Amino acid sequence: MIRRHSTSTRLGGSLKKSVSVAVMNKPAPASSRAKSRSLAASEPSGSGRRLGDLAYRRILEGLFDRRVPAGSFISQGELVRLLDVPIQPLREALRVLETEGILKIHARSGIEFLKADMELARSTYQFRSVIERSAARAYAETANLAEITGLLEKHRTLLELIERDGITEAAAITMEDLEQRFHGSMIGALRNPMIETTARRLKNYVDLIRLDVTSTPPRMIRTLREHIDVLEACHRRDTDEAEAALGRHFQAALQRILGMV
Prior knowledge:
The chain is mainly alpha-helical. It has helices at residues 30-41, 51-64, 76-83, 87-99, 118-142, 145-165, 169-188, 193-209, 217-235, 239-257; strands at 6-11, 14-19, 73-74, 103-106, 110-113. The strands form two sheets. It has a three-stranded antiparallel β-sheet with strand order 3-5-4. Strands 1-2 form a two-stranded antiparallel sheet. The longest helix is centred in the middle third of the chain and has 25 residues, at 118-142. The radius of gyration is 19 Å and the shape is globular. Mean pLDDT is 84; it is low at 1-27 and 36-48.
């Protein structure tokens, strides 16, 4: 049985107190279901990938669809039953996720999962901003104009859809895809595997932070317009404005996370 209690948040090797308020029967929002669908779609279907990789993805999927509540304590045996993965690959995946700060392994009491708090949100968005401002400059300089145009069109189409119909499940799935493509394209422009690995870890933090944030049409519309500002600057090859617009986007995104706007 999953227990709720005071837990600790870990980032960069430090531990900060926070209180778990996980609820097992709370339904996952459409954005969380979109994340789970994205993970499930890319799961290995045969022997081409190691079971440890599958276990890694199943654990993250469990977090994002709330079967494993953020901030909870749970035993390895319970995870095996919940996620339907063998114990050895599960242990391998847990060790990897511990190094990434998603959880902490307690030898005799179970697995303690990360519970996002304000400090984690600030640290994550500050780190992302440092990396992606440079990435926006690189993308503006080097990206194929047809690729930028395609991303712009997809953003504008979704913006019109949400302004007309609000947030449907299909819109939430499309938004998650555009988020990944937008930020992934920026990071990819740096052509640096170490930065790409770091960005993937930061994305896991972002997804955890957003679990308790309600997506509303005004918030999603603002996000899309901020993306469009960045992409329009990239299309003009305006590196200074692309970097500045990306910085404004992260500042506004953090304010939305903290409930300031």
